[in-house]
Amino acid sequence: MSIVRDNTIEWIKACANVMAENRDYLTQLDAAIGDADHGANMDRGFKAVTNKIPEFSDKDIGTIFKTVGMTLISTVGGAGGPLYGTFFLQAGMKTAGKMELNLADWFVTLEAALNGVVMRGKAEIGDKTMVDALTPAVNSLKKALEDNTSLEKALQQSAEAARQGMEATIPLVARKGRASYLGERSAGHQDPGATSSYLLLKAAADTWGDGQ
Length: 212
Known about the structure:
Elements: E1 3-4, H1 5-21, H2 23-33, H3 38-56, H4 61-75, H5 80-94, E2 100-101, H6 103-121, H7 131-146, H8 151-167, H9 192-211
Antiparallel strand pairs: 1-2
Helix pairs in contact: 1-2, 1-3, 1-9, 2-3, 2-9, 3-4, 4-5, 5-6, 6-7, 7-8, 7-9, 8-9
C-alpha cells in the first residue's frame, strides 16, 4: 500500500474543500486571538492551488508540493502564507522526483515539513501554534513505522494525534504570533493554525485511507 501521485492531487483537492468548508470556523477561532482572517486566507490560498492543478497534474510529487508551497506563499496573507508555504516546499524537497510514497517516505516528508515550520516560525511545542498539532502527528508516524503499522492505520493515528495536539492548545498562553500580544487572555481559545494543520492531516487520512 502506497501513496501515488494521483493520490497526492486528490489530497490537495480535499485540502481545498476542507478549507472552504471550515472557512468561517477558522475565522471565528482567529477572531478570538488573532486578526480574524485565517479562514479566508487559507481558503483563498487553496483555491489558488486548485487552479494550478492542470499545470502540475502530470508532474512528480515533489514538483506538486513545491508548486503548492509557492502558490500559498504568494496568495495566503498573514503568517499562514510563509508557514504553510515552507511546509509544502520542504515536503517537495523530500519528495523530489518521486511518483510514489510509502509510510517511511511520508514520515520523512512530514518531519521535514514540520522542521521547516519550526525554523521559519521559531516556535516549539507549547507555544500555541500549528507546531502543537504537527509535532504529535510526526511522532505518531515514527511510532507507526517502528510498530510496522499499515499506512492506512498510521495515517489515522497521525491525524488523531494532531487532533489531540490541536485541542491541547486551548488552555495554553500563546508565546508566538499575533495571539501572543493578548498574553493570559489567549488562554481558553483553540489555536487556528493548529486547527488548520489538523484539518490537512485529517484530509490526508480520509483521502489516502479510503483511496487505497
